[in-house]
Specification:
It is a single chain. By secondary structure, the chain is an all-alpha fold. It is 74% helix and 0% strand.
């Protein structure tokens, strides 16, 4: 590698580390959101959403930078496995570690996101059920509306 390529390579490594750290931060925010939801601390959600938005913007910027660096290094549209095949053995081992760490954090992020989404769905369901109880909407045991007991809802289905 010439000096210019080495500088680009070092920047690429830095971007991979920053991507990993950002994915880790987003995963932690998702976990905190899930905990807040489980504790019915809905007042904290706005803060989590703002934090996540900032992290996601950072993640997108870093990934765009990674793509540009990969292109400059001649790795455009290559997978991580294909990149590992193109680098020298010493670089390969370090890149393998960085790719593995990034992959692990992205997997953790996906799991954290799924847990937070499930908690959010539970809370939305509870909120809707409370609103429906307040409105007096009758349900049978399978949670289907009893239209006979609530005749004005029949109007809603006439134009469907």
């Amino acid at each position: 590698m010439d000096k210019n390529q080495l500088v680009l390579y070092e920047r690429f490594l830095t971007i991979l580390r920053e991507l990993t750290e950002t994915a880790h931060s987003i995963a932690r925010a998702e976990e905190e959101k899930a905990v807040a939801l489980s504790l019915k601390r809905h007042d904290l959600l706005d803060g989590f959403m703002k934090k996540e938005q900032a992290y996601i913007l950072t993640l997108r910027g870093l990934d765009q930078h990674r793509v540009r660096l990969a292109k400059s290094l001649g790795w455009e549209s290559l997978t991580f496995v294909q990149i590992l095949e193109k680098v020298e053995p010493v670089q390969k081992e370090y890149l393998k570690i960085l790719f593995h760490d990034l992959e692990q954090e992205l997997r953790t992020l996906q799991q954290s996101k799924e847990v937070a989404e499930r908690m959010m769905n539970v809370r939305v369901y509870e909120l809707l059920a409370a609103i429906e109880r307040q409105a007096g909407i009758p349900y049978d045991r399978e949670r289907k509306v009893d239209f006979e007991g609530f005749p004005h809802t029949n109007l809603c289905d006439r134009y469907g």
